[in-house]
Structures are given as C-alpha cells and as structure tokens.
Specification:
The complex is a heterodimer.
Chain A: E1 14-15, E2 18-19, H1 32-36, H2 46-55, E3 57-61, E4 66-68, E5 76-82, E6 85-88, E7 102-104, E8 109-110, E9 124-127, E10 131-137, H3 138-147, H4 149-177
Helix pairs in contact in A: 3-4
Chain B: H1 8-28, H2 30-55, H3 60-116, H4 127-150, H5 153-179, H6 183-225, H7 230-240, H8 246-261, H9 269-273, H10 278-301, H11 310-324, H12 326-353
Helix pairs in contact in B: 2-3, 2-5, 3-4, 3-5, 6-7, 6-10, 6-12, 7-8, 8-10, 11-12
Classes of the chains: A alpha+beta, B mainly alpha.
Chain lengths: 178, 355
C-alpha cells in the first residue's frame, strides 16, 4: 500500500469541512483483491463477486475523521481497503487518554449489524490514518438479494455466521469474567 | 474532529441561501421541468421491467431497448387507435352540447323555482345561465387543449430521449451523485435517496395502475349504462384519479350532467334490466368504481401513506395549480413528499450534529 498519511490539503478554502481545492485522485482502485479475501465473500463465484463489487462504494477518509459516531443512524457496513480504523465506545475521546477498544486494519469490517436492523450505531468508528473504505449498504443488499436470491442467501448466511461468531465471543468474554 | 472555525450561523445561512437559490432557479426554468419530470416518471415506471429483463439474462442495453420500444410502441398504437375515437367523441360532444345545454338550464331553473318557494333567496342567482356559460366556455377551449396536449413537438422528441437516458444511466447518475457527497453526509443522503426512491417509485407505479384500472372499469360501466362518450369520460375519470379527494367528484359531475341530458343507447344492458333514469345508473357506476378503488386498489397498491395532513394536501393542490396548472395538481403530492422526506432527513441530521 502507498503511504496515505502524507496527503495534505493545498489550500484552506473549505466548504462544510471539505477542501474545495484538494486534488482528487481519480485512478480506479483495484478492490477485487481486497474483497476476495474477506470471509464474508469467500463462497461467492466470480460472477457473484463482480455483482457485489458493483454494489460497493469506495470512500476516502482523512486521518482522525469520523466514519460514524455512536448514535448515528446506521445504513450498512464498511470494509477497510487501506489504512486503519479505531472503534470507540460512546463518550470516549482522545482527550481523556484512554485506549480505543478496538483497532481494525485492511480486510477487517465493521458496522455489519446495521445491515439488518434500522437502528443507531452503538460505537463510533474513526479513521486512525488516511483510510479508504468499501461501504456495503442495506439498500444494495436488498436489491442484490431481490434479483439474485442465491447470492442473497449466501451473503445473509455469511453475515449471520459472522454476527453469531462475534456474539459467541462476547458471550464467552462475559462468562469468563463471571 | 471539526477543524472548521466559522460560526454555526454562517453555515446555516449559507445553506439556506443555497436552497433558496436552487428553488428560485427551478422556478425560473419551471416550464422546462415538465418534460424532465414526465421523463423521470416514465423511467420510474419502466425501471422494474428493464431490471427484470436484465436479470433474466439480457444485457443492460438490450433490456432497456426492449423495454423502451415496448412502452413507446404500445403508447404509439394506443394513440393511433384511441386518438381518432377520442377526437370524434370530443367533436360530437362539442357539437351536441350547445343544443342540449339549454335543456339542462331549463331543468335547473325548474328546480330553482321549486326550491325558491322554501328559500326565496335562491331566486336571486341565475344558476342555469351561469352553468351554461361556464360549460360552454370550457368546452370551446377543450379541442384546443386536447390538440395542444398531443402535439407539443418538443415534448414528443424530448421525453423519449430523456427517459431513455434516465433508464440507461440512472444508476450511474445516482452513484456519481453519491460519490460526490462529502463523508459526513454520505450515509444520510444515501438513506434519504433510497427512501425517496422507494416511496416515489411505488407511488407512481401504484397511481398509474390505479388510474388505468379505474379508467377501464368506468368505461365498461358506462358502456353497460349505454351512456355516450364513455371513452372520453373514462379517460377523464382515470386522469382525475391522480387528484386526491376532489378527483372522483370532478370526474362524476360531467358524466351525471351528460346522463341527464342524453338518452341511453337503446341496446344497453343495464337500463333494460333496471328501468331507472340514466343518471341514476351513471351515479351507481361511479360509486361502485370508487368503492372498489377505496376497498381494494388504494390500500393494496398504495401500501405507503402520503403522510401529509388532508389540509396540507388541499393547500398543495391549490399551490400546484397556481404554479404549474394541471401538471401541478398531478405532481403536487409526490413532489411534496420528496420535500417532506428531505426535510425530515435534514432535521434528523441537525439534531445529531447541531450543525
């Protein structure tokens, strides 16, 4: 991966937090390699993978910017393409010096519960370095499973497996504490 | 981490000014918006079919071309076959009414005289003459209006062209738009777009299906009654159904008036079975059709509620009429629900971020 940390705004003219004169790199990003390795998409055929790829949104985040905050309405999950992300508990800020409770790197994903329930995010996600994410959102999941039920089943099963694994892990953690 | 140091009121003011500017710009180009909106509607109607074909193994372009040719081919055939019929009926009606209208005035005068014995104030108003004048005025402009609707040349070229591109590139336009949204607003805007898309899509498709069904039912009902001009009246009923609340009543009035004035077709079924006045049959047909719609079609097809207070809808219709005429009345409700959903999303967003 190239070093994304050096990106600096050239001008200070900003509108709503975005730099108007920032040069945007528009070369296409190879995302296939990145999503092939994700357990969520492991059982998909080449064709299905292409359909998922078409449904993903590539988003760039500058270091330190929030991807979402606890309490935001959630619409879907994000897969980390490059960079890294902190997952923070609500109320936890960098000023109080406490450790973020999770750090995720390329290939990790988060926010998958928002694909299933129309609810707010329970944690905040924040870019640690300059980060590119692949967003996969509820409307696109619905459309995919509407038109390609087989693909939809595979995706939903894989998502269910991931969620149940994470739930089991947190259950074990809780019972281990007791 | 907001590095932005400008005060909140500055951003807020800027946003409001931009919105106002956008609204004003739209107002200035409002006559150009009509073909755009019609094209969008057509794209909305055709997208599911194109998607279906594409996912059945057609390529995107063949799927769209097939859908497109099918739709405009059908439309062309319909215009080709129905238009002469409609025009004949319209011409007949325009020719017949000046003869029959005095009859209606006479009936109304008679009724007025009878009522005046109970309520003398009624005598002061020339109801009969006024109705006659109003109807004749509308009627004289009717052929011109029909011709106008069907022969607007730019519309005939523009609408197929624009709707084709909406159909072909709708997804790309949407993705491009979403990609240009700054990170903090991205999910909000995407959720909003999805919701608007779903609601407007189902509204448009539902209304169209409803209007078609109502038009057909009315046509067959009036045919059974043996009323002339059934095609004209049925199309009118279908169109009027786009107008909430008032539409069905507006649709019923001319039919009843014509039923009072005209004899039933002697071969019609219904008058033979039930020897009631023609007007009673006609009213019955409209009541049955509207009840079927209310019980059956409306709840089933319009699975979502417009969620605007009835008073609000009435106001919207008035404003829409003032701004855009008939198109304004038809488009008022969907456009207003887009605005409402957007406003809700924005306020939700502000409540979270205190923007």
């Amino acid at each position: 991966m190239h070093s994304p940390d050096k990106e600096k705004p050239a001008s200070s003219l900003t509108w709503m937090g975005t730099n108007l004169f920032r040069k945007r790199d528009r070369e296409p990003v190879e995302i296939r390699a990145s999503i092939e390795k994700i357990p969520l998409f492991r059982n998909l055929t080449k064709k299905e993978l292409r359909r998922v790829e078409e449904a993903l949104y590539l988003r760039r985040y500058r270091a330190d910017s929030f991807i979402f905050r606890a309490g935001d309405p959630g619409l879907g999950m994000y897969i980390i393409h490059t960079g890294s992300v902190w997952i923070q508990k609500p109320g936890q800020t960098d000023s109080d010096g406490s450790q973020p409770f999770l750090e995720l790197g390329p290939g990790d994903f988060f926010g998958e519960m928002a694909l299933f329930e129309e609810n707010v995010h329970l944690v905040s996600a924040r870019a640690r370095t300059n980060t590119t994410l692949l967003g996969f959102f509820r409307p696109d999941l619905m459309t995919l499973s509407h038109y390609y039920p087989r693909l939809g089943c595979k995706l939903l099963l894989a998502l269910g497996r991931v969620i149940s694994e994470r739930f089991r892990a947190s259950l074990e953690e809780v019972s281990g504490d007791a | 981490m907001d590095k932005e140091q400008r005060p909140y009121w500055f951003r807020r003011l800027a946003l409001v000014l931009i919105l106002l500017g956008a609204v004003f710009a739209l107002y200035i180009v409002r006559s150009a918006l009509i073909p755009l909106l019609i094209s969008m509607l057509i794209a909305y109607i055709l997208t599911p079919l194109a998607d279906y074909l594409e996912h059945k193994g057609f390529g995107r372009i063949p799927a769209i071309t097939t859908t497109f040719l099918l739709f405009f081919g059908l439309l062309f055939l319909m215009v080709l076959y129905l238009f002469p019929l409609i025009r004949n009926q319209a011409v007949d009606l325009t020719a017949a009414l000046p003869r029959t209208l005095p009859l209606l005035s006479a009936r109304i005068d008679e009724l007025q005289a009878r009522l005046a014995t109970y309520w003398p104030a009624i005598e002061q108003v020339d109801v009969g003459v006024r109705i006659q004048r109003a109807v004749l005025g509308t009627l004289n402009s009717l052929p011109a209006y029909v011709v106008n609707v069907f022969s607007i040349f730019p519309l005939l070229i523009l609408v197929p062209l624009i709707s084709f591109f909406f159909l072909k590139d709708g997804r790309k336009i949407r993705r491009g738009f979403l990609n240009s949204i700054p990170n903090p607003y991205f999910e909000t805007v995407m959720g909003l777009l999805y919701e608007v898309d779903r609601k407007i899509g189902s509204y448009v498709r539902g209304q169209l299906l409803r209007s078609t069904v109502i038009g057909c039912l009315t046509f067959f009902g009036l045919k059974l009654c043996g009323l002339q001009y059934s095609l004209l009246l049925a199309i009118f009923a279908g169109l009027m159904n786009f107008i909430p609340y008032a539409g069905p009543f507006i649709a019923t009035l001319p039919a009843v008036a014509l039923a009072i004035l005209h004899q039933a077709n002697p071969h019609a079924v219904l008058p033979l079975a039930f020897p009631l006045p023609l007007a009673a049959h006609v009213v019955l047909v409209y009541i049955v059709v509207q009840s079927l719609d209310a019980v059956w079609l409306a709840p089933y097809i319009l699975g979502w509620s417009v969620d605007i207070h009835p008073l609000g809808i009435v106001l919207l219709l008035l404003f829409g009429n003032q701004l855009f005429g008939w198109w304004g009345i038809i488009l008022a409700v969907p456009v207003a629900s887009i605005i409402k959903l957007t406003a809700q999303a924005i306020t939700r967003y502000y409540r979270i971020y205190e923007f």
